[in-house]
């Protein structure tokens, strides 16, 4: 065997998924604007130029991260809206449970989504999608009020904000593997919210 045939040892390569996970972690710790591609390269232990073999730009990473969070939430609402034989109340309860499960499964990406402020085109697009999600949620609340299964003395948009504010607050304190699983958490939030709102 010649020297050229000996496999070289060195730092293993990183796939796009691994690069994205580390980028999301850095964006959450340092802020998107405070994180450079050089920071990401240092975290991965590669040269800055090597990063561009995986991703074209920092904005592309942000877009992928926000898509991950938004696609999960949008899918949860779409699934509930498609429950044609269920009441609006049951569809809304399903969305709350599914949203908790999305947050638990994609907590770093959802955390990043909740922190964006519209400082770039990517963030503006994400915020527009998030407003559309909020409108769909408020419509489900309104439908449940109209069918008589939710109390009508609270504004539907306010109920929606409070419900999903409770779900979103999980990013501040929930840590996977520390006593409460995702399913138990989803059950607890749904029970707390809907036993209080259900007539």
In short:
The chain is mainly alpha-helical and 199 residues long. It has ten helices and no strands.
Oligomer: single chain
Quickly count the domains: 2
Class per helix and strand makeup: mainly alpha
**Binned strand content:** under 5%
Write down the CATH topology of the largest domain: Tetracycline Repressor, domain 2
Describe this structure in words.
- This protein is mainly α and 199 residues long.
- The chain has 2 domains: 46 residues, Arc Repressor Mutant, subunit A (Orthogonal Bundle), CATH 1.10.10; 140 residues, Tetracycline Repressor, domain 2 (Orthogonal Bundle).
- It is 69% helix and 0% strand.
- It has 10 helices and no strands.
- Helix 4 runs antiparallel to helix 5 and helix 5 crosses helix 6.
Structural topology:
Blueprint lengths: L15 H15 L6 H8 L3 H4 L6 H24 L6 H18 L1 H9 L5 H26 L9 H13 L1 H4 L8 H16 L2
Helix pairs in contact: 1-2, 1-4, 1-6, 4-5, 4-6, 4-7, 5-6, 5-7, 5-8, 5-10, 7-8
Short descriptors:
Arc Repressor Mutant, subunit A, 199 residues, Tetracycline Repressor, domain 2, 10 helices, single chain, 0% strand, disordered N terminus, elongated, mainly alpha
């Amino acid at each position: 065997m010649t020297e050229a045939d000996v496999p070289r040892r060195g730092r293993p390569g990183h796939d796009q998924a691994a690069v994205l996970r580390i980028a999301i972690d850095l964006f959450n710790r340092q802020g998107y604007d405070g994180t450079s591609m050089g920071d990401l390269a240092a975290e991965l232990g590669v040269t800055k130029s090597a990063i561009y073999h995986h991703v074209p730009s920092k904005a592309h990473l942000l877009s992928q991260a926000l898509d991950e969070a938004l696609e999960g939430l949008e899918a949860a609402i779409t699934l509930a809206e498609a429950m044609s034989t269920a009441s609006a109340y049951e569809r809304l309860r399903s969305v709350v449970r599914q949203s908790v499960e999305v947050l638990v499964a994609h907590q770093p990406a959802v955390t990043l989504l909740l922190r964006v402020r519209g400082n770039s085109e990517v963030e503006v697009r994400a915020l527009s999608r998030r407003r559309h999600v909020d409108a769909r949620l408020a419509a489900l609340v309104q439908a449940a009020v109209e069918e008589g299964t939710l109390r009508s003395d609270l504004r539907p948009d306010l109920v929606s904000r409070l419900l999903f504010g409770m779900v979103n607050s999980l990013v501040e304190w929930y840590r996977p593997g520390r006593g409460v699983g995702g399913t138990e958490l989803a059950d607890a939030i749904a029970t707390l919210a809907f036993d209080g709102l259900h007539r």
